[in-house]
Structure formats: C-alpha cells, structure tokens
Amino acid sequence: MSVVYSPKGKQIASGSVDQTVRLWDAESGQAGPILKGHTHWVQSVAYSPKGKQIASGSSDKTVRLWDAHDGKAEHILEGHTNWVQSVTYSPSGEQIASGSLDNTVRLWDVASGECLNVIQEFSGGVFSVAWMELNGRQYLVTGSVDQSVRQWAIQKEPEGYQVKLLWSSKHDMLAVTDALFEGVQGLSEMNARLLKQRGAVDKRE
C-alpha cells in the first residue's frame, strides 16, 4: 500500500495489507526487520527527517511509531475513528500529521504521543498530508475526497498548536479567517450569507 526511502536512501520501508511494515536494504534488496502490531492494512509509511524513526498509518485507525534500526515499537497514537490514510513528519521530526477517512487531520507530539490539534474542516476523508517549513513558518497541505487541496499555517502559541486555513482549491466552499469585509458586492447570495453567519461582514451591509 505504501513505500518510502529513508532520508539517506539506504533503507526502504513498505506497508502492506498483511498488516506489517517491512524494512529493506535499498542496495541489496535484503529483507530486514518485520514490524508487527497493526491489526489491519498498513496504508502509509513515513521516515522521520533524521531517519531514526518510522511512522505507519493503518486501517486499524491508529498511527504507530517504530525504531527504524531494530523495528521496536515506540508509541501507538489513538484517536482517529476511521482508517488512517496518510502520515507525515514535521521538518523537525518532533510532530506528525495524520489524515483519515474520519474527515480529520490530527497533529501529534512524537515524544509524548499527545494529540496537539484536530482539523475538522473537511466533508470527506483525507488521503494525503505533507508538512514543510519555509522562512521559519510551518505549513501543512492536505488532499481530500471532498475534491480539495488546502494549505494551512501551523503556529505554536502559549495555549497550544493553532492551525489556520490559508486557501482551498474547492470553489464551492468559503473559508474566512480573521477577516472583516465592509461589503458583499460581487459575492453569490450563498457566500454572502455564509460570511454574515461567520461574523466576517459588517452588520450594516
């Protein structure tokens, strides 16, 4: 279901419907440790940026973290209510994002296994997630069954990790964050109504 190279390209991890993650020597093809613990298909595998850890997402609704050298299980991340389709590490390797058929993305702390935030603004399952850092800022991009690509800004605040939607490719949805419009000319009746409901339109309009 999923294959990925380690950051240095020396190892390969594969996730399978046989409920395991297998490690392979990329040069020789020799099989390494078999990572067992999932109770359903392994849909997605990812290496941490330094290659020391592997995350796997499964149809058993969990994300599992493994030592990439010996295959030892380190954490089980529980909270999703449907299949986990995609997992990715943050550039620092300290967090993980997981996308699920439960129409959410969850952010996790790698060290503690704690769920840091749940993004729920989807009308379909999330099949793909990617995380990057640019100019000191953290960004997440998601691909969903609701036919959207969305980009999010991730910020660590005193009260925890905050996620803000920056844009969406889905034309029939309207997302507004920290904005106030003084008029709604040119918007469809539905979008104008949504803006007013969200308090983003001056009440005099």
TrEMBL record:
The keyword Chloroplast does not apply. Keywords: Repeat, WD repeat. WD repeats lie at residues 1-30, 35-76, 77-118. Signal peptide: none annotated. It comes from the Eukaryota. Pfam families: WD40. The keyword Nucleotide-binding does not apply. This is WD40 repeat-like protein. It comes from Linnemannia gamsii.
